[in-house]
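Whiteboard transcription, Tuesday session. T.W. wrote the structure tokens on the left side:
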């Protein structure tokens, strides 16, 4: 199951046409809506028991932090993980790429990154110095609870467009779509959805990479996603049209947002040195508010050598009902610079809840 299946099903779905006696041509549409919804749920919701006869391979995914065996990869039956395909291992699927949005990823070796995080499941990306870019695309991982979606999504959603609209609402409003650190895959995935499917999507999960080791292209991908979600969650302003025979501007119908995202789960990779956090004072929600106010009044791009502009970009997203913030804590070296010291203190704040309290206060109280 992926957006290719959903999108192609929509394109091939025929309009619902009545028969000579006025009844819908599809036997499914002759059933009451309540019965149809029960059928959609039976076909699209996760299985109550995991399917042991089908295995989902992650061998062709772009390796990065928490790719394999991590707690945030499809451990929830109601989660569908969207990941970037390794361009060097996914060439056999290039024919399906033509039906998806493609994007370029940098290839290289994160030697400094792996030295800090001794997670045995971390792996290097092959290539010299991240100096080259390679086109790739995304795929949706199916867990043992959702393996049946590989067949039910294209077969059900392609019957006709009315069934596509009814069933896609169940599909996209039920699952959490988790991108983890594959932030670059989010905008292409969302853009490939039909407008109706995109409007039904309610839950997203993303992971912020370790701040000291975030590259410029990481920041650009994060900003692109935040801008996309912020713009999609608000109505696009329209210039009023003026009647040339009068000075009055014609009233305009306010367009509806294209997305109605309600729940955001933010994972943040945090670092804890071998001597622990006991001697470190973590910033509170009030501290972050003060730092942001000082930055806005006095200027400057970073706080304690650490740029929190990514958090400001995230806070532009409107209409959320809940924001969950979780620290993915890994071992890190003892800080030897102001930048690393701030990150360790920030990591403790994420774990203890101060940062999450600040984010929720800004995104929910003011923008609900």
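and on the right, the sequence the group agreed on:
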């Amino acid at each position: 199951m992926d957006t290719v299946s959903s999108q192609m099903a929509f394109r091939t779905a025929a309009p619902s046409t009545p028969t000579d006696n006025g009844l819908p041509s599809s036997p499914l549409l002759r059933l009451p809506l309540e019965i149809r919804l029960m059928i959609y749920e039976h076909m699209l919701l996760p299985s109550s028991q995991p399917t042991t006869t089908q295995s989902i391979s992650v061998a062709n995914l772009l390796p990065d932090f928490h790719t394999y065996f991590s707690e945030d990869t499809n451990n929830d039956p109601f989660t569908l993980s969207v990941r970037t395909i390794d361009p060097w291992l996914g060439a056999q699927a290039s024919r399906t790429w033509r039906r998806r949005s493609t994007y370029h990823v940098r290839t290289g070796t994160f030697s400094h990154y792996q030295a800090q995080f001794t997670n045995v499941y971390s792996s290097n990306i092959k290539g010299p110095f991240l100096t080259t870019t390679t086109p790739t695309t995304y795929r949706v991982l199916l867990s043992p609870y959702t393996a049946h979606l590989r067949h039910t999504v294209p077969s059900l959603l392609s019957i006709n467009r009315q069934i596509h609209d009814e069933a896609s609402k169940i599909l996209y409003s039920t699952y959490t779509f988790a991108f983890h650190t594959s932030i670059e895959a989010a905008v292409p995935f969302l853009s490939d959805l039909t407008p109706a499917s995109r409007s039904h999507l309610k839950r997203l999960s993303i992971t912020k990479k370790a701040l000291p080791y975030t590259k410029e292209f990481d920041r650009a991908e994060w900003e692109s996603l935040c801008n996309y979600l912020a713009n999609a969650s608000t109505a696009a302003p329209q210039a009023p049209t003026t009647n040339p025979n009068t000075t009055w501007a014609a009233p305009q119908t306010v367009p509806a947002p294209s997305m109605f995202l309600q729940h955001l789960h933010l994972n943040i990779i945090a670092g804890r040195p071998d001597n622990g956090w006991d001697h470190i004072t973590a910033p509170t929600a009030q501290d972050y508010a003060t730092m942001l106010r000082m930055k806005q009044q006095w200027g400057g791009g970073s706080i304690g050598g650490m740029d929190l502009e990514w958090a400001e970009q995230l806070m532009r997203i409107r209409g959320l009902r809940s924001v969950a913030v979780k620290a993915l804590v890994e071992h890190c070296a003892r800080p030897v610079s102001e930048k690393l010291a701030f990150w360790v203190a920030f990591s403790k704040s994420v774990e203890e809840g101060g940062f999450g309290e600040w984010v929720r206060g800004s995104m929910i109280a003011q923008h609900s």
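Someone added at the bottom: The CA atoms of residues 272 and 331 lie 5 Å apart.
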